[in-house]
Amino acid sequence: MSVKGVEGSGAKAPSSGAPAEASGAPVPDSTTGPLVDVRDVSVVFRKKRTLAAARQVRAVNDVTFHIAEGETFGLVGESGSGKSTTGRALLKLVPTESGSIKVAGHDVTNLRGGSLRRARRSMQMVFQDPYSSLDPSSTVAASIAEPLVVHERLSAKEARSRVNDLIEMVGLRASYAERYPYEFSGGQRQRLAIARAIALNPRFIVCDEAVSALDVSTQNQVINLLERLRAEFRLTYLFIAHDLAIVRHISHRVGVMYLGRIVETGPAERVYTAPAHPYTQALLSAIPDPRRRSGRIVLEGDLPDPARPPVGCPFQTRCGFVMDICKQRVPEHTAVEGGGEVACHLQTTGPTLAGSPLNDLVPTRATSTP
């Protein structure tokens, strides 16, 4: 993809032969296999103690999912569920304990040194905080040009020309290049961070809470920018967020994480209209909706200590449908009607749902409030 002269030039997205969505954006292409393939990935953090046993935290536990080229895969869950650690593990920013990660058919699980640096040309990240993701002592031009100088060895003149194009591409003026980060608003800084992320023409970008620090109107603008860039350059996103309304808007498919595990995946519309896991149902009930007839589902307590997870289903300590088997065995992933999978004993045991949504099932203990 060329980054030169796109903004305002009338350039069109590359054609893939696939039918277009209603918005005109290309639909994900799953015919050639996933661009990102994550299988049984686990991340373990260990902390040594002088007067007590070493503490081991399994932040990500046997996570498996895939993302097709041109697709946005949303990853949601409470704080501490392992979303950001999963995104960082995919880019090798944190070490993995086990499992495999493939991007564009290349196994990046065990890459080190120069091989990892070369692989990162096609994998980039937009961080959560635009105020700390840019070097306050460098101009915007220097920050955006750094990957161009390191990876492509461009001259100062060539790098400056590319930087100007990138800044205009994200909706800002090229004349802003010599300013420092403190001279910009939060939304402008995040646009500049996006410009830096696409500088090397990546195929895959992890957006880690990329709009959570912005006000609502600015969030919409940045989301629209990400959507436009995806459509024009067939980018592939892992979009991590806790705001489920935003995730529904931008994502093709959604994964729901709880205590380091993915408990449900599926097409965004199916997950939002017919959740198959009690945790997904509780998260969705927290979205303000005046049309909702049922009350909000309030989960009791906090996330369990990841260093001492409960035996059996990780959600059983807070679930309104808990059964005896939930306290004994971790549920397997089963197919869901309408697409996707869910890890819940309700789909296979007791009041068997067989992939159906939870909408008509009455909790075994009270969890709802008006």
From TrEMBL:
<dbReference type="InterPro" id="IPR017871">
    <property type="entry name" value="ABC_transporter-like_CS"/>
</dbReference>
<keyword id="KW-0813">Transport</keyword>
<keyword id="KW-0547">Nucleotide-binding</keyword>
<feature type="domain" description="ABC transporter">
    <location>
        <begin position="38"/>
        <end position="284"/>
    </location>
</feature>
<dbReference type="GO" id="GO:0005524">
    <property type="term" value="F:ATP binding"/>
</dbReference>
<feature type="compositionally biased region" description="Low complexity">
    <location>
        <begin position="9"/>
        <end position="28"/>
    </location>
</feature>
<dbReference type="Pfam" id="PF08352">
    <property type="entry name" value="oligo_HPY"/>
</dbReference>
<dbReference type="InterPro" id="IPR003439">
    <property type="entry name" value="ABC_transporter-like_ATP-bd"/>
</dbReference>
<dbReference type="Pfam" id="PF00005">
    <property type="entry name" value="ABC_tran"/>
</dbReference>
<dbReference type="InterPro" id="IPR003593">
    <property type="entry name" value="AAA+_ATPase"/>
</dbReference>
<dbReference type="GO" id="GO:0016887">
    <property type="term" value="F:ATP hydrolysis activity"/>
</dbReference>
<dbReference type="InterPro" id="IPR013563">
    <property type="entry name" value="Oligopep_ABC_C"/>
</dbReference>
<feature type="region of interest" description="Disordered">
    <location>
        <begin position="1"/>
        <end position="33"/>
    </location>
</feature>
<comment type="similarity">
    <text>Belongs to the ABC transporter superfamily.</text>
</comment>
<keyword id="KW-0067">ATP-binding</keyword>
<dbReference type="InterPro" id="IPR050319">
    <property type="entry name" value="ABC_transp_ATP-bind"/>
</dbReference>
<dbReference type="GO" id="GO:0015833">
    <property type="term" value="P:peptide transport"/>
</dbReference>
<dbReference type="GO" id="GO:0055085">
    <property type="term" value="P:transmembrane transport"/>
</dbReference>
<dbReference type="InterPro" id="IPR027417">
    <property type="entry name" value="P-loop_NTPase"/>
</dbReference>
<protein>
    <submittedName>
        <fullName>ABC transporter ATP-binding protein</fullName>
    </submittedName>
</protein>
